[in-house]
Amino acid sequence: MSSLTPAVLLFAAMALAHGGESSTMSMGAENHTVDTPEEPQTPNSYFNYPKHSGALFAHIVIMCVAWVVSLPVAVMFSIARSRFTIVSQLVFGALNALGVFIAIGYNASTPDLYPNNAHHKLGWIVTVTLTTQFAIGIVGKLAGVLQGLAKPHTQQYEQVAFIPTESSSQQLRSPGPYRLSDDSGHSTVHSSSSHSRSSSASTVAEHAQYELNNMHKEHFDEEEDVGFASGPAFIPGSATKWTRASETIAGFFSARVWRIFAVYYDAVDRVILPLGFVTLACGIVTVGRFFEDTRIYSGLAHWIKGGIFFWLGLLTLGRWSGSFGDFGWAWNIRPRRAGQGWRPTAEFTESFLIFVYGITNVFLEHLGSQDGVWTHQDLEHLSITILFIGGGACGMLIESSVVRELLNTTVDESISVSEGLMVDRERGEIEKPGQYSFSMNPIPAVVILLLGIMMSSHEQPSMISTMVHKQWGDLLAAASFSRALTYIILWLRPPTSVYPSRPPTELLTSFGLIAGGLIFMASASDTVDAIIRNQLDAMFLYTVTMGIVGLLMAWVLFVLALKGWAVRKEKAWRA
């Protein structure tokens, strides 16, 4: 078998989904353990197991295509309420199913080298979650009542009314019942036999649809209200067939149930990619047989923190591209709407995550100690978590408008002249600075900078481990300096438009966070040991990471642009 190592797969197979590398078969070489590098012929992990390696690599490649290429496209189409949603979901489902079947066959032919691994269980959870979402989407096309058929002698269209929205047809806005799609379009009178077969289900469908129309306006933003899957539906068969199915299915569920389904569907769209990342990370751990026994705590400390920085980098790239612009996160002025409530700033969210992580990981590194003795390295890690707690709390206080107003109390009390008696010059003096309209909070960047500096000088048991830690420490420090440049630019000229200002320094911030997060994950003791055993060096890890991060950023920007294209395409089709 090729000598491909876990460290390489950490980056080359970032979309390794579940495939159940664990099996219930008994281990065929129980007298061997993973820590036997002096006997390389011993199959101590799936990477170096000599049999059926082709099936393992087929599983990895297929899952990479499914979870890195196919699923993000399906998610973007789903969020855009595109007519291509179902097709893209079916493509992903087929690829994922193929990868699962290959893994099941591989499990049946190999010993269980990592008993009770999390990848197997989590893989089935995400598969069931996505399958349920896909089923809701397809059934929603039917239970939403297929409508909007074209006039006779023209191509028949099916406009899906599930999760009806602002951009749906005006029929959905009507306070009264609307005509079902089996109506001829010229008369609302059905034969008595047809009416007796479907009147009950039709009544439920009409009521559920009207309730859904009102529900979606209450719970979803206007910019997302682009229709669940409007336009020509790619569903074969006659209109009558699908109409009857829609009436039957609609009769099974109340409007309250569909309201839950709608929330579940949108929630899965928002969380499935991070959840898939966790699943694939567990897959890499399983295939490489990392972090067994007490080493799990070191693995959690590195992979959780590295994963957080990785996703923070992706979030930063999304902010640069314009994502979350309605929150004011895209380095823009938040668009104003009537009845708009409080929304957290991006810096508040970053500070909150830093604070929570510090609280939940105070003793994580020490738990991996073999003898329970506190070492100076344990105290260093404890100090880092205290930095996260204090820095996160400080950042949240800075983002609080109440706190900022209280800090202005001294100045407010010193103003003795009422505004009505002031001259123009004096009125200008009491106006709040333009910088107040935009959040400029460097504390999250300072915390990341200090973490990078500390890790760059962190004592490690081997030279390669020290170099790897210095690599991701330098990358995080560079990301922090880039964020500082962003704040300098915006302080000199605060944003004045609702459109994303796209400061170029944020691209550097994103790159540093993504690359630093991946190398952070690879700096755990087990992964470094795998690099050493396979006679690789730290620079190999660094160069591979840089190439993959550049490719990943290009793919993320393409997928986000694809979402914008899908939204505009749907609007053009409905015009």
Automatic annotation (TrEMBL):
<feature type="domain" description="Protein YTP1-like C-terminal">
    <location>
        <begin position="276"/>
        <end position="563"/>
    </location>
</feature>
<feature type="transmembrane region" description="Helical">
    <location>
        <begin position="539"/>
        <end position="562"/>
    </location>
</feature>
<dbReference type="InterPro" id="IPR018827">
    <property type="entry name" value="YTP1_C"/>
</dbReference>
<feature type="region of interest" description="Disordered">
    <location>
        <begin position="23"/>
        <end position="44"/>
    </location>
</feature>
<keyword id="KW-0732">Signal</keyword>
<dbReference type="Pfam" id="PF10355">
    <property type="entry name" value="Ytp1"/>
</dbReference>
<feature type="transmembrane region" description="Helical">
    <location>
        <begin position="56"/>
        <end position="77"/>
    </location>
</feature>
<feature type="transmembrane region" description="Helical">
    <location>
        <begin position="381"/>
        <end position="398"/>
    </location>
</feature>
<feature type="transmembrane region" description="Helical">
    <location>
        <begin position="84"/>
        <end position="104"/>
    </location>
</feature>
<feature type="transmembrane region" description="Helical">
    <location>
        <begin position="436"/>
        <end position="455"/>
    </location>
</feature>
<feature type="transmembrane region" description="Helical">
    <location>
        <begin position="505"/>
        <end position="524"/>
    </location>
</feature>
<feature type="domain" description="DUF2427">
    <location>
        <begin position="42"/>
        <end position="142"/>
    </location>
</feature>
<keyword id="KW-1133">Transmembrane helix</keyword>
<keyword id="KW-0472">Membrane</keyword>
<feature type="signal peptide">
    <location>
        <begin position="1"/>
        <end position="19"/>
    </location>
</feature>
<feature type="transmembrane region" description="Helical">
    <location>
        <begin position="271"/>
        <end position="291"/>
    </location>
</feature>
<feature type="transmembrane region" description="Helical">
    <location>
        <begin position="303"/>
        <end position="322"/>
    </location>
</feature>
<protein>
    <recommendedName>
        <fullName>Protein YTP1-like C-terminal domain-containing protein</fullName>
    </recommendedName>
</protein>
<feature type="transmembrane region" description="Helical">
    <location>
        <begin position="475"/>
        <end position="493"/>
    </location>
</feature>
<dbReference type="Pfam" id="PF10348">
    <property type="entry name" value="DUF2427"/>
</dbReference>
<feature type="compositionally biased region" description="Low complexity">
    <location>
        <begin position="186"/>
        <end position="202"/>
    </location>
</feature>
<keyword id="KW-0812">Transmembrane</keyword>
<feature type="transmembrane region" description="Helical">
    <location>
        <begin position="124"/>
        <end position="146"/>
    </location>
</feature>
<dbReference type="InterPro" id="IPR018825">
    <property type="entry name" value="DUF2427"/>
</dbReference>
<feature type="region of interest" description="Disordered">
    <location>
        <begin position="166"/>
        <end position="202"/>
    </location>
</feature>
